[in-house]
Amino acid sequence: MLHIDRNRLYHIKLYVKPSVIRTELQIPLRVQQYRFQNGRVTVGVDAPFGFSRGFIETVQLPYVQYGYRFGNDTNLDLVTYVRFVYGEYEVEIPRSGELIFNILTKKIPSYWITLPISYMDAMIKDALRRTYGFTDPNYGFKLYRVDEKDIAVADYSNILTTLVV
What we know:
Number of helices: 3
Radius of gyration: 18 Å
Strand order of the largest sheet: 4-1-6
Largest sheet: 3 strands, antiparallel
Number of strands: 6
Order of helices and strands: EEEEEEHHH
Structural class: alpha+beta
Helix content: 10-25%
Number of domains: 1
């Protein structure tokens, strides 16, 4: 049986050479997350926009297999290679609603990575539930204005009581 350590986070940087190569991250595998106008416009490595070039940075969600797509939109026969650089960190869910508020309002310096998840696939929902205990369909912490600190801290503290800590 696969052992998932909820206190471990994998930070992945993917470098593609030459950097002209189009890159796309799929979370989970075969689920295209890049979307425009609620999915009415096709985007990704096989479209005119909705892709990265030469570099992707992400964090790995437990229980979710990621996929990568690559595209060459030039007429050149390129020799390519990919290099993965990753960090493995010991982490924990903050236990204070005020700490979460200070992180989200950037009062505490932190490193930010945005996961390109525009479609909440069932696998992602299940992974968040199994790993962290998220049961709310909104999965996570709502962003509040700085002047709504009291409301935010109360909301975050309430969410923390429902998580598997």
